[in-house]
Amino acid sequence: MTNNSANTYNKMLPPLPERMRPRNLDEYVGQKHLVGKGCVLRNMIEGGNLTSFILWGPPGVGKTSLARIVANSMDRDFYTLSAVSSGVKDVREVIDRARSSATSMFGAGKGAPILFIDEIHKYEKWSIEIKEIYDLYPQLHVVLSGSSLLALKSGLADLSRRMLQYDMPGLSFREYLRFDKRLDFQAVSLDNLLNNPAELCFEVRERCSPLEYFSAYIQKGYYPFYFEDYFAYAPRVENVVNYTIDNELTSQCGVDVANTRKIKALMQVISGMIPFEVDTAKISRNLGLQRLTLLQYMKHLEDAKLIRRLFANLLTTRDLQKPDKILLDNPNLLYVLCPTIPATGTVRETFFCNQLASSGHVIEYGGMKNADFKIDGNYVIEVGGRDKGYSQLDNTENGYVAADGIDSPVFRKIPLWAFGFLY
């Protein structure tokens, strides 16, 4: 094929993202908590009982693809638009088309059409508009997506009895291997990983060097836009942080614009922390913030999925209580925001907590004298390097070590990277 012919052929093809977009659940990679066997969206599709819902997740995580799969799998007409490039007038026009479809198709045995609006939080007073659409046009199924959790949360009060929200986290280490290295592995449950880690580790080691790829993933790979432009990854992550603080915290949480620099400084402070006790009094003094204001800002940052607050006992924790430990949400944020090379211990714990939380597990801080973390009130897990011992487990029956730098389990010491296969 000549160059001219090839260029003409390529122009006739849909854009690469469209060609790579999965067509059904079997081709869809990730989000097993939603589309896995027995999980909520798969049950909706297989049972034919669709309800309206909201998908939240970082850009590129697969929200639009999943909405299209739902429509195709249920033989529904699918109407889509983006709030980034469309106005309320466009929404009304699409609704009119969808209503016409509903009227004409019901008699033909086709289900109710689906109206999908991407980045819905870009519309001012979006929740009021959607509530009206939902009430006036019950024959439509409305599916929304957004990448601003703060904006979605502020509007969900109006829709709490009408729509469910499903979170779609960034890529796990397992999903990163699937996208970047074309290595496909099944996710494992935490119980299976702890009780039989050798099975997973042997399978992975047979096909790749997990330690080599793990070191790359923790620096770049959690946010799916990594695959769009490797070299622009760090600036894009920083842009996400800046936009969240400068725009969303001020508009959605009432944060004083004059304090946005202090919040960014707080993010840098957290990125450089050695993972020990939190001294909120010292942090508030250094940043020039009242202690209560600092605690409120920490809660907002956690709601925005930028940091993670950990407490020793969630049953007695109050809303604005001083956290026992603070980490950034994921290790990629550490490498972007930390002014120096992040502390190895902080990177390990950030990765561990991110993967456990993203797969639906409840994490509590274990304390200085005990294992690092309590998981689901059942397991205790110490996170460390390859030479980490068992002394802090104190002969606990359900105690384990998540060890960095090893590729095979030894007794109750499990490779840290293996916890990236939980979803």
General description of the model:
The chain has 423 residues and is α/β, with parallel strands linked by helices. The chain has 18 helices and twelve strands. The chain has helices at residues 3-12, 16-20, 32-35, 40-47, 63-73, 88-105, 126-136, 149-156, 173-181, 190-195, 197-207, 210-217, 233-252, 260-271, 280-287, 291-303, 331-337, 344-358, and strands at 53-56, 78-82, 114-118, 141-146, 164-167, 307-310, 325-328, 363-365, 373-375, 379-384, 399-403, 413-415. The strands form three sheets. It has a five-stranded parallel sheet, sandwiched between helices. Strands 8-9-10-11-12 form a five-stranded mixed sheet, covered by helices on one side. The protein is globular and about 70 Å long.
Strands ordered across the widest β-sheet: 2-3-4-1-5
Query: What do the pLDDT scores average to?
Result: 86
Identify low-pLDDT runs: 105-109
Q: How many β-strand runs?
A: 12
Distance between the termini: 43 Å
Structural class: alpha/beta
**Total DSSP helices:** 18
Order of helices and strands: HHHHEHEHEHEHEHHHHHHHHEEHHEEEEE
Please state the overall shape, judged from the principal axes of the Cα atoms: globular
Biggest sheet details? 5 strands, parallel
Strand content: 5-15%
Amount of helix? 40-55%
Computed Rg: 23 Å
